[in-house]
Amino acid sequence: MLAVVGKQLRTHPALIPLFAFIGGGVTMSMAYLARLAIRNPDVCWDRKNNPEPWNKLGPTDQYKFYSVSIDYSKLKKEGPDF
């Protein structure tokens, strides 16, 4: 398979940017999925020791990838402790 791709790239060099952009897109999407699996509080990998990880988040913890107008350092806790 790699020999066929290498032969195509040697005979058609205009395909190099296509492979580069598709490879970059695949890499970025896999990195984002890995970030969601590791950092998202909705994902629970250890149900025995921590069945509800979202309860351990403080009001100043930022878990979103990008927030436009919210400053997480100024938020105060509104609910009770569980």
UniProtKB/TrEMBL annotation:
Bilayer topology annotation: Single-pass membrane protein
Coiled-coil regions listed in the entry: none
Keyword Electron transport: yes
Statement: the UniProt record of this protein carries the keyword Mitochondrion: yes
GO cellular component terms given for this protein: mitochondrial inner membrane
Keyword terms, alphabetized: Electron transport, Membrane, Mitochondrion, Mitochondrion inner membrane, Respiratory chain, Transmembrane, Transmembrane helix, Transport
Domain of life: Eukaryota
Subcellular location: Mitochondrion inner membrane
Family: Belongs to the complex IV NDUFA4 subunit family.
TM region(s), chain numbering: 15-38
InterPro entries per UniProt: B12D (IPR010530)
Protein name per its UniProtKB record: Cytochrome c oxidase subunit NDUFA4
Main subcellular location: mitochondrion
